[in-house]
Amino acid sequence: MSASPWAAWPAGTDPRELSRSLYVAHETFLETGNPAGPVRTIVLESWRRSMSSGVNPDVSEPPVDLLDDELASYREAHPLAPIMPVVRRLLVADAVDNDLLVAVTDASGRLLWVDGSSRQRTRAETVHFVEGASWSESDAGTNAPAIALTADRSVQIFASEHFSRPVHMWSCSAAPVHDPVTGEVLGAIDITGGDEVAAPHMLTLVRATAAAAEAELALRHLQGGRQLPASRQFSRPPAPRRGPLSVPRGTPPGRPVARLDVLGRTHGVLRRAGQSLSLSGRHSELLLLLASHPDGRSAEQLAVELHERESALVTIRAEMSRLRRLLGDDLLTSRPYRLTVPVDTDVAEVRRQLDRGAHRLALDLYQGVVLPHSQAPGVVAIRAETRQRLRTALLRHATGDVLLRYAELPDAETDVEIWRACLAALPAGSPRRTRVAAHLRRLDADLA
Questions:
Q1: Are residues 384 and 402 in the same domain?
Q2: Record keywords: DNA-binding included (predicted)?
Q3: Which H or E run includes 107?
Q4: 84: closest CA among 216, 245, 238, 197?
Q5: Phi and psi, residue 114, nearest 5°
C-alpha cells in the first residue's frame, strides 16, 4: 500500500492488480463487515460510516437539492466563486483534452461547478455527479471530495475504494480550500476520471491548484474584495449571468434577439449580431423545443419530448444548467424553462412563408429536414409537421420546376407521389421529363 495514507498508491504500482484486490476487499466488507485484504484506514473508516448512514452500495443517487435559479444564486454568492478563473486556467482546459472532470464543492460536499470533458459529463450524470448534487459521505458514500472535507486533507480514492458499486469505474483526487483569514474550510477542488486520476502526480496537481485558489482569495482580501464566510447565509441577490447571447439593454419586447437554424443540420447554429455559435446536438434539441413553446416547458415535459418517457430528470436539469450558462440568465429562466424573449428559427420562417402562400420562398429556406439525426420525439414531431406542410403546399400550388427542386432533396428522393406530380406538371417537351420518368421507374422497381 501507499506510504502516505492519503495517496492511492506509490509510483510503480500496477493499477489493475490493485483494482482487483480492492474489489475483493469491498465485496467481502459488504458481506461480512470486514475487508479481505489490506485497505487504507481512511477508506475502511469511510466505508463503515457510509454503511452506518444507510448509503445503498448498489446505486448512486445522491440528492440533487439545488437546481436552476437556486443553484445559480447560491454559487454566484459563494465565497469560492472568485477562484473559478484560477481553476479553469489550471485544470479545466487540460481536463477537456484528457477526458477528465473538474468539480468544485461547497463545505458540505455539494457540487457547485462540474466542468471538463463533455463525454465524461454525460457518463457522470448516470451516477448523479452533477451540479447541485450532494456528494457528502452520508449521501454518496466514500468519495474523495467528501473525505477531503471531513479530514481537511488532500486525498485520492481509487476505483473500488468508493463505497457505491456504480462509482467503481471512477477515481478521484480532491483537496480542501480554506478561507485565508479564518482558516475555515470553504469547499474542495476535485479531479475525476479513470485510473490515471489516482496516480501520485494528480494529488500534487490538485493540491497545488487549491493553494493557488487560496492565494487568489488572500489577494482579494488584501485588495478589499473579501467574500462572505461560508457559514453566513447568502442574502445578497446575485446579478443575472450574462452569456454571449444575453439580451441587450433596451431590446423591445417581442423582438427576436437571436436566430436558430436547424434545417438540414445535424447541430443547430445560433446567430446573433453577426456572430454564430454551433450548439451540441442536445442543446440544439432543447433550444428548438423552447423556441417552439413560448409559454415554456417543465423538466418533465422536456424529458418526455427528448426521451419518449419520463426519465432522467436530473440529466435534463443538468443540460438546462449548461444551456443557461451559454445563453445567460436573462434569456432563459426556469420553472418552467422558458425563453424570456423570442428566438426565431428557420423552421418558423418556413411556416410564415407557407402561411402567406409564398411556397417558392419557403422552399428556398428549406435546407433539409429538422435536425436529421435527432430521435427526440418532440423534434421528430416538429420535423414531420414542417415537412408535411411544405410538401402539401407544393403538391397543390407549385410548378413542375419548383416541385423538381423539392424532389431532389434527400427527404423527397423516394417520395413517389412527389415524383409523379413532377412528371405531370413538367411541360411535354421538357428534357427533364426523361430523367423524372427514369427515376420513377427505379422507384417502382424498388417497391415491386
A1: no
A2: yes
A3: none
A4: 216
A5: -130, 120
- What is the spatial distance between Cα 239 and Cα 72, in angstroms, rounded to a whole number? 10
Look up residue 121 and give its amino acid.
R
Has residue 242 been placed in a domain?
A: no
- What is the pTM for the complete model shown? 0.60
Question: pLDDT for 326-341, tens place per residue?
Answer: 887 668 887 788 998 8
In a domain, residue 10? The reply is no
Interval 79-129: pLDDT, tens? 999 999 999 999 998 888 889 999 999 999 999 999 998 889 989 988 999
Asked if residue 408 and residue 289 are part of one domain, the reply reads no
pLDDT the model gives residue 236? 37
Which pLDDT value is given to residue 9? 87
**pLDDT of the residue at 272:** 78
What whole-number distance in Å separates Cα of residue 351 and Cα of residue 188?
51
pLDDT score, position 398: 84
Whole-number Å distance between alpha carbons of 21 and 367:
57
Same structural domain, 308 and 200: no
Q: How many CA atoms lie within 13 A of 180 on its CB side?
A: 18
Distance CA 177, CA 104 (A): 10
Cell of 272: 446573433
Statement to judge: residues 346 and 441 lie in one domain: no
CATH number of the domain where residue 205 is located: 3.30.450.40
Residue numbers of the chain with a pLDDT score lower than 50:
1-2, 226-241, 247-252, 310-311
- Assigned domain for 407 exists: yes
Burial class (CB in 10 A: 0-12, 13-18, 19+), 152: middle
DSSP result, 358-396: -HHHHHHH--SSBSTT---HHHHHHHHHHHHHHHHHHHH
Strand 275-278 with 269-272, pairing: antiparallel
